Amino acid sequence: MQPIIGEIRDINRYPVKSFAGEALEVCDIEPYGLVGDRFCAFYDETKEGWSRFVTARNIPGLLSYHAKFIDGAIEVTTPEGTVLGWDERLLDEIQKLSKKPITMSRLRDPHPQFPHLLSVDEASVLIVTDASLRRLEEVWGQPVDHRRFRGNFVVAVRDDSIFEGDWIGQRLGIGEAELQIDSYCERCVMITMNPDNLDRDPSLLKKVHQNFSLRFGVYASVVKPGRVQLGDQVKLLDNPEADALRA
């Protein structure tokens, strides 16, 4: 029997890289990740590869824009409440936040280094657990908003002794989908920004460095596409390839 290690507590999608995203009750997983996730991005054309992405590391104000993916299109709400599409009006708006010339990607533009992915950092899906969030709250001494970590899934684990790093090299069954856990996510200054008001608190990154070696959450690739919804069980699956390597 496949062991049940938890269930899906939160689903989050971020249609525009480094914009605020949307909470979902159900999502579909395609080979590149959640449908509509990191569907587009802004570019600094003076750079190459991953560095080409314009992110909130460089322009924190990007996090104050809220993006939704609706019927294959992008809808963005500005901090002032104006609703825009993925078009020149939005580009003009974002260009005001930077002295460098910025361009915008096409919808579903391939990753500059990994053509099977979109505008992600390293892999298709990012997962964090409620147990890790609680551990961080204990050492930081205050509540931690999971949105700081921009995970696609927050897994409520059945045992607080579970570390998501133990899943690396393993496969998880979630709803109709199967994911391969590939690596840790190494954290940066973005987690220091409050997702509601953008206030910074560097002490959070310091605690993640001291207590988690900057590793918080795991990246996963898609083995089997399918639908995932809130409350779906998360199962640890047999992985013949990993078992063969250990043997």
Automatic annotation (TrEMBL):
InterPro entries tied to this protein: MoCF_Sase_C, MOCOS_middle, MOSC_domain
Pfam families assigned to the protein according to its UniProt record, in alphabetical order: MOSC, MOSC_N
Stretches assigned to the MOSC domain: 89-237
Domain of life: Bacteria
Signal peptide boundaries: none
Name recorded for this polypeptide: MOSC domain-containing protein
Lineage: Bacteria, Bacillati, Bacillota, Bacilli, Bacillales
